[in-house]
Every structure is written in structure tokens, then in C-alpha cells.
From TrEMBL:
This protein's UniProt keywords: Hydrolase, Metal-binding, Metalloprotease, Protease, Zinc
Species: Candidatus Thalassarchaeum betae
Molecular-function annotations in GO: metal ion binding; metalloendopeptidase activity
GO biological process: peptide metabolic process; proteolysis
Cofactor entry: Zn(2+)
Classification via Gene3D superfamilies: 1.10.1370.30
InterPro entries: Pept_M3A_M3B (IPR045090), Pept_M3A_M3B_dom (IPR001567), Pept_M3B_oligopep-rel (IPR011976)
Full protein name: M3 family oligoendopeptidase
Residues annotated as domain Peptidase M3A/M3B catalytic: 165-543
Length: 568
């Protein structure tokens, strides 16, 4: 073994290469708390290499879903390396947490040991093959949705490329685009329902194997949600229902009046977060044509906010860490991934020139800044913050960049884009509550039939959704949850966006009063990575973690004031 524990050229995509290092960690002599610290450090180094190998394979696959050898390499990793890693991680966890010297470790390791003890508590060997099955179904979901193309306007288009037609001022264009998209999704609706049925069955089995009544309790543990409960989520849904839903209806009412239509149809307003066609009949905002324009404009935005952020963003371009344009065979969506060994973030998205694409870029850049700020922290576990805080980094960047949007827009266009963004925050919260409440119900009632699932979905749509007229498309409305990738691929990852949005809005309040103060709060909190519990991460930036109606009401209240100012 080298002094840095693993050699630099070590290929961690193959188990036979990982195994000798894993064996060393599992068998080396541990006589003191210093040896235990060394073990933690070395296992972090190994985890960095393995994580980076897996991330690179996943990036290669999502950038080119039609390339069967890239898919195969990723699947090899999922099927042959990850199960062995889970087993190894559990053995290592037990070795660390069970060692008498664990009590002598400095407090720096408290959170990590707490997480390790949770992971030991829920680990079951018989869940490993189930998790492999789960990952394969998730990959099939990616392949199915990545292959969705629509014949429109004489061309084959990806679904992200179709987004722009849903903002067309000609209602018949919007309708035909919406019909084309949903018809394409309908072709795979049966298989997607089967995949979801199967995922629910597998996940429930994983939970009961681990001794839980159902998957909700399992996933709260697995996600280390120590600082809020199932009941807090339900309270959050109630707060959103009383604060955001009425405001959303008001916003949609104005939309209906301005568009001069009897009822909003699904092509008149975005299902997930409102928005859609401009209500004053202006063409969709087109902040950029090419990906190069997007990159150089964002570089200017971040440099104007602070030289530090600008420098971090430029580094991504220089290191070739951006894959931004939409093309056939690329998985949908956008993400930021960390390359843990090289400690460089990677950003993936499907840019087609819309305001939404600009927001995605700024959002993912916020994640990348978070990675940069925490990149100096020693251990992999210390650098990966909980998602409830990770999304504060990205969502607050969307809001705090408002004053710089002139980079892409005239003054009037910028006002319009900001109003659109603020309205979407209001309207997104009810959608978030819908998705979260849906998952709570789905996993609390794992034996449900598809009819019951549809019925409950529609009930949630009535509680939280816009008063959109779906007549003629009732079947589609019943399965409209299928458009939400998270339900398939990252179960219960959604309330984090709502929790984080509350944090982002608080940072935005600071930023409205004193921009540089807000950015130093941002830097201070983001530099902590994952070294503190969630309430302390919020606290480091001066933010409160809360779910009550009063808290939500005061934040959305200030947002609404800002919205009124912009629109005046
Ligand atoms: Zn994000």
C-alpha cells in the first residue's frame, strides 16, 4: 500500500481492483482511536475513487443513452460493483462503530458515527439483490424517457426541446404541442405504471426486511432525516395549502382573465409550477441562442455578483465540466454531480434557449459553488451536505442573481422574467406538496390498486392543483404523476426542494437588504459541507428551519410584495 493508501491510477470501476483495499480496511489492526481515524481517512480515500468511477460511468450513460457499451459499463458497475460495495460498507461500518475506541474519537466524527449507526441499523443482506433490481428499473425508466421523441413542426424533437412550444402565444400551437407530448408519453404509460408498481413492491419489501412497517419509516432513516418527521411534512403540506394555494389561484385567475379564456386548459398554464405562455401576448423569452452565449452570460452574472463566484464558474468551463445542449439520446433533466477524487463538479442539462434553461444553469451552478466551497473538507462524508441544504445553495442563487439578469435581457424582459420566477415559486410549492403527499400515501398503502392510486392522485390535484380544465383528457390526468422523474428514481426526494426554498427565500431577504452580507452568509454556510446537523447549517447563514403556517406565510408574504412591486 502506498502512503496515500491507493495509487493514483487505480481503476475503481472494477471490484477486483477495489477488493484488496477493502480487505486491508476490514482486517488491519486497530489498537487506538488514532488507528480508527486513519481507517476513516483511508476508507474516505477509497470511497472517493469508487464514487468518481461510478459518477463518470453514470455521466457517460446519461450523455448518450443510446450507446449500448456505455449503458453496459454503467450496468456492470451497478450489478457487479455496487452490491459488493454495500456489503463491504456495512462490514466496515460495523467495524468502526463497534470498536471501543469510537468513544474516544473527537467530536468532529459525531455526525458521521450517528449516520453509520443508522446505516447499520437498517442494513439487511437480503436487500442487496432488491436494491440491484430497483436500480435496474430506475435505469430502464431513464432509457424509456430518454428515448421519447416527438415528430413536430417537420422535425424529430426531444421533450425538453418541445418546452418552447408550450409558451407559444398561438393557443392552437400550444395545444398541438401539448397533445404531441402527452400522446408520446401515453405510448409508454403502461410500462411506466408497471415499473412504478414494481418499484413500490421492491421498496416496501426492503423496508419490511429492515423491520419497518412501511417504506416511509425506512426512507426517513435511510435519508438520515434526523431533524424533521413525517408529521412535520404533513404540517408543511397544510401550511402550503393555506398560504400558497390561494395565492396560486389568484395568479391563475389573473392569467385566465388576461388570456381571455373561459377556463385554463393544460396548455395554458404549467402543471408543475405555473407559468406558461406570456399573458400579455409577448413571445417566449429567449435569453440565448447558443450554449456558448449561455456560458459567457452566466460567467458575467457571477463575476458581477462576486469575483469569487465568477472564478468558480469559469473553472467549470476551463475544466470541460459542462454538457449543456439538448440532443437526441441524452437523458432528460439537469443535474450537478461531484467528481469526488478530482473534487470538480460536473453540470448536465438540456438547454434549448428558454428562460427555464437559464434558471437551470444558475441553479446547477449554485450546487457547483457549494461543492467548491466545501471542497477543502477532508473526508467525502464531510463534503456532501443533506439535500435540504444542498438545494438552498442552488435555489438561493436563482433568487440572488435577479439584479444581474440584464445580462440576458432588456429592463422590461428582466422584470418579466423575475415576476415569472417569483410566481413559479408560489405555484411550485403546491406541486411539491402534491408529489410529497402522493409518495406518503403510495408507500403507506403499498397494496393499493392502480385505480386507487389514480383516485388519490386526483384528490391531491383537487386539494393543491390549479383549476385547470382537463375535459377530454381525463385518462391522461390520472397518470400525470408519471412526468415526475423523482417518483421513479429518487423516492421521497422532493420535500427537500420545499424546505430548501424556505431557506433560499430567507437568504434572498438578506440579499435584498445587503447583497454582500447575504453572499458572506452563503459562503460561510456552504463551506460547512456536511459537518453540522441540518438546523445548524441553516443557522450558520442565519436561516430558520420551520414548517409552520406563520413562517411560510411571512416568507411568501414578502415574495408577494416583491412581485407586486415588479409588476407595478
Ligand atoms: Zn438542485
Amino acid at each position: 500500500m502506498t502512503s496515500s493508501f491507493v495509487t493514483e491510477d487505480f481503476d475503481a470501476s472494477k471490484w477486483e481492483n477495489i477488493e484488496p483495499y477493502a480487505n486491508d480496511l476490514l482486517t488491519r489492526e486497530l489498537t487506538c482511536s488514532g488507528c480508527l481515524e486513519r481507517l476513516i481517512k483511508d476508507s474516505s480515500t477509497l470511497a472517493e475513487h469508487v464514487s468518481e468511477a461510478g459518477t463518470l460511468l453514470s455521466i457517460a450513460m446519461t450523455c448518450d443513452t443510446e450507446n449500448s457499451s456505455k449503458l453496459q459499463s454503467y450496468l456492470d458497475f451497478v450489478e457487479n460493483v455496487q452490491p459488493k460495495l454495500s456489503e463491504f460498507a456495512d462490514a466496515l461500518n460495523r467495524r468502526m462503530a463497534g470498536h471501543p475506541a469510537v468513544e474516544e474519537l473527537p467530536s468532529r466524527y459525531d455526525l458521521m458515527i450517528k449516520c453509520i449507526r443508522t446505516d447499520i441499523g437498517i442494513f439487511r443482506e437480503e436487500n442487496i439483490p432488491l436494491q440491484v433490481e430497483e436500480a435496474k428499473l430506475e435505469t430502464e425508466h431513464s432509457t424509456i424517457t430518454g428515448a421519447m421523441m416527438v415528430e413536430y413542426d417537420g422535425e424529430e424533437k426531444t421533450l425538453p426541446q418541445m418546452a418552447i412550444y408550450l409558451e407559444d402565444t398561438d393557443r392552437s400551437v400550444r395545444e398541438s404541442a401539448w397533445r404531441a407530448i402527452t400522446a408520446r408519453m401515453e405510448q409508454d404509460a403502461e410500462r411506466l405504471s408497471e415499473i412504478y408498481d414494481e418499484l413500490i413492491r421492491i421498496r416496501h419489501q426492503i423496508a419490511t426486511n429492515a423491520g419497518f412497517d412501511d417504506y416511509r419509516f425506512y426512507i426517513f432513516e435511510a435519508k438520515h432525516r434526523y431533524d424533521y418527521s413525517l408529521d412535520d411534512c404533513l404540517q408543511f403540506h397544510d401550511s402550503i395549502e393555506s398560504v400558497c394555494v390561494p395565492l396560486m389561484h389568484q395568479i391563475h385567475g389573473e392569467r385566465r382573465t388576461a388570456l381571455d379564456v373561459e377556463a385554463l386548459r393544460p396548455w395554458d398554464v404549467g402543471e408543475k409550477s405555473g407559468g406558461g405562455v406570456d399573458i400579455h401576448g409577448r413571445s417566449p423569452l429567449q435569453p440565448f441562442d447558443t450554449v456558448d452565449e449561455l456560458i459567457s452570460g452566466c460567467s458575467n452574472i457571477f463575476h458581477s455578483m462576486s469575483p469569487e463566484l465568477g472564478g468558480m464558474f469559469d473553472m467549470l468551463k476551463e475544466r470541460d465540466s459542462l454538457d449543456l445542449e439538448s440532443r437526441k439520446g441524452k437523458a432528460p433533466g439537469g443535474y450537478q454531480a461531484n467528481l469526488e477524487k478530482t473534487r470538480i463538479p460536473f453540470i448536465f442539462m438540456n438547454a434549448a434557449g428558454t428562460q427555464g434553461d437559464l434558471m437551470t444553469m444558475v441553479h446547477e451552478a449554485g450546487h457547483a459553488f457549494h461543492s467548491c466551497y466545501s471542497s477543502e473538507l477532508d473526508l467525502i462524508d464531510e463534503r456532501n451536505p443533506p439535500l435540504e441544504f444542498a438545494e438552498v445553495a442552488s435555489m438561493s442563487m436563482e433568487l440572488m442573481s435577479h439584479p444581474e439578469w440584464g445580462e440576458f435581457y432588456s429592463e422590461e424582459e428582466a422584470r418579466r422574467a423575475k415576476a415569472d420566477h417569483l410566481e413559479k415559486i408560489v405555484c411550485f410549492m403546491p406541486w411539491m406538496a402534491t408529489i410529497d403527499a402522493f409518495q406518503h400515501w403510495v408507500y403507506a398503502n403499498p397494496e393499493h390498486s392502480r385505480e386507487e392510486r389514480a383516485e388519490h392522485w386526483l384528490e391531491l390535484r383537487r386539494r393543491f392543483g390549479p383549476k385547470t380544465d382537463w375535459s377530454g383528457f381525463e385518462d391522461l390526468k390520472e397518470t400525470s404523476w408519471q412526468g415526475q422523474l423523482h417518483l421513479f428514481q429518487v423516492p421521497f426526494y422532493y420535500v427537500e426542494y420545499g424546505i430548501a426554498q424556505l431557506g433560499a427565500l430567507q437568504l434572498w431577504q438578506y440579499h435584498r437588504r445587503d447583497a454582500s452580507d447575504a453572499l458572506s452568509r452563503y459562503a460561510r454556510a456552504m463551506s460547512l459541507g456536511n459537518t453540522k446537523p441540518l438546523p445548524e447549517l441553516f443557522g450558520a447563514a442565519g436561516l430558520n428551519l420551520g414548517f409552520g403556517e406563520e413562517h411560510v406565510g411571512s416568507l411568501i408574504g414578502e415574495l408577494n410584495e416583491a412581485l407586486t412591486e415588479i409588476q407595478a
